[in-house]
Amino acid sequence: MTEKIEIKNISEAARRILQAVEKKEKIIVYGDADLDGVTAVIICKESIENLGGKVAALYFPDREIEGYGINKTALRNLEKYAPALILAVDLGIGNFEEIKIAKKLGFSVVVVDHHEILDGLPEADVIVDPKQPDDPYPFKFLCAAGLCFRLAEKLFNRQMSKNLRESFAELAALATLADMMPREFENIDIIEEGLRTIDNSFRPGLRTFFKTDVLNLESDNFNRRISKIISVLNVRDMKEGIPAAYKLLCAESASSAQELIREFLIINRERRDKIRVVTEEIEMNIAEKKEPIIFEGARDWELNLMGTVASIICQKYGKPTFVYKTLEQESQGTVRSTEEINSVALMRNCKDLLMTYGGHPKASGFRVKNENLEKFKACLIKNLPQSK
Question: Is this prediction's pTM over 0.70?
Answer without folding.
Answer: yes
